[in-house]
Amino acid sequence: MYPLRGLKRCQYPQLSWGRNRCRKLYFLQLQLQFKFKNGLKPHMKKLSLIILLFASSLSAQTYQPTWDSIDKRPTPAWFMDAKFGIFIHWGTYSVPAYAPVIPGQLAYAEWYWNNMTRGRDDPKAGPIQTETWAYHQKVYGADFPYQSYAAQFQAQLFDPDHWADVFARSGAKYVVLTSKHHEGFALWPSKEASATWGRPWNAVETGPKRDLLGDLSDSVRRKGLRMGYYYSLYEWYNPLWLSDKPRYIREHMFPQFKDLVTRYKPTIIFTDGEWDLTSAEWRSPELLAWLFNESPVKDDVVINDRWGKDTRHKHGGYWTTEYTPGMTGMDHPWEESRGMGFSYGYNRAERLENYHTGRELVIMLVDLVSRGGNLLLDIGPEADGTIPVVMEERLLQIGDWLKVNGEAIYGTNPWKATRQWSAGEVPKVDYNKEYRTPYDVTKLVGKPEAGKASIEAFFTMKGSDLFVILPRWPGRNFYLKDVTGAKSVTLLGSAGPLKFKAQKGGISIELPALPEELLPQPAWVLKVSR
Fold first, then answer.
1. DSSP letter, residue 180
2. Which tens digit of pLDDT belongs to each residue from 200-214?
3. How far apart are CA 235 and CA 241, in angstroms?
């Protein structure tokens, strides 16, 4: 065995690898192996030093504070391989935990302060705002200020080890916690938060009086998951933001962001609240140059695209979509985020029928991954620090499916086709939008109506293996179109190969009677080795 075999994928966790860099290192590997094979056997320590020095030189690029330079930084490969993450919206808004449930509308409970204020003060306020203000008056009284929720945000039942265990059992590979939302309340001891608000405005100085972010980060990492943070650039009612935005950016946002990164070392940063200013006004390229050149996470941190009102789907790291079908483009990393219902923060007004079922969430994950995307699925814990039981159940249902079928998800790439349709008219889907686009993939995988097509299978691939993910069990035979060169077919979770034969440009697969343990699955996976 040659000493460098296995470096082809260049999966060094401490480095940010692009394809060109991988190729360079791989070609160096081949050259050294040729010398090794032909009798020129360098000392192993020297050989290792050559590789490490070359790798270090590739990762030592200095990024300038311009988008032209920042956009050249490749997204670390671990993110594209992970596929599934957990979003957490938790803060002072978890105390009222309310947004009106209005058919056809998203109502985010974490926007409670903004909604109640607009419902009270804005004559053009919509029903979400006016109903939130009416609720606030009824339950808390018109004179009850939002800031008083901080003392009621106690997190007295918060068990970070339990949270981390649930996330690990869900099959997620990374976690993104709201370090602070648009109301500015920080879940770590941020001195900037309290200083600019002129009151205790972080979880260590008031409310829980505990470093919630730090405690959860430690627990999550002990489970082997990656930890990241959501960070809102703006804050609705921060006095400094309202009076002097450049000073807010200079004296509040910049030092607070750097404190968060330096102290807790996230591997993901999900910024938001960028839409009021351009990225130049936010000084985002300058901040990102610091992040990629000087910060302790400069080599493996992943960022999104929300750095100014001019940046979504244009600049930054992976593209983001929010309550949409996601994207069709496979040339750039992207991620769809959404809650299990209509909100990110916990909404006590939502009922069971407003939540996606475990099956629907699995199909959603499969659909996104087949097109090259990730799913960042949100939970909204309660103010006492407990995860709502229905949310925990959904996560464990996803995890049960991934235990059997994760090979078809993690580390996969899209195939030449993302899905196989039945005969009939294929419905049109409005992809590539940034925010709130109606879409229900479970309607596309159901039994087709007369003259309409439905999705028979989704596809992913890893190496030469093709994974065929069936959202409905087709019976005792399945015809797989446009596949040739199959060497074997297996059903994940079931022992033994399946019989198949070439037929009209595809293969016809004989399916077994499902084992009892696979009957309840929301989807089934055929692995076609070629």
1. E
2. 999 999 999 999 999
3. 7
Distances (CA, A) of 18 to 11, 24, 480: 11, 10, 34
Residue that has been written with the tokens 């093709």 in this structure: 466
Q: CB burial class (10 A; 0-12, 13-18, 19+) of residue 449?
A: exposed
As a whole number of angstroms, the distance between CA 285 and CA 478 comes to 51
The residue among 390, 408, 430 whose CA lies nearest residue 166 is 390
| Distance between CA atoms of residues 149 and 145, nearest Å | 8
- Write out pLDDT tens, residues 449-482: 899 999 999 999 999 999 999 999 999 999 999 9
Find out whether 458 and 418 touch, Cβ atoms under 8 Å. Answer: yes
Alpha carbon separation from 368 to 21, 39, 153, 524 (Å, rounded): 28, 49, 35, 16
Q: E-strand spans in 67-199? A: 84-88, 174-180
Three-class SS state of 363: helix
With contact defined as beta carbons under 8 Å apart, do 361 and 474 qualify? no
Closest CA to 177 of 188, 166, 161: 188
**Cβ proximity of 234 and 278 under 8 Å:** no
How far does CA 63 lie from the centroid of its chain?
A: 25
Tens of pLDDT, residue by residue over 214-246, are: 999 999 999 999 999 999 999 999 999 999 999
* Residue of 220, 224, 215, 88 whose CA lies nearest to 164: 220
pTM of the model: 0.90
DSSP for residue 290: H
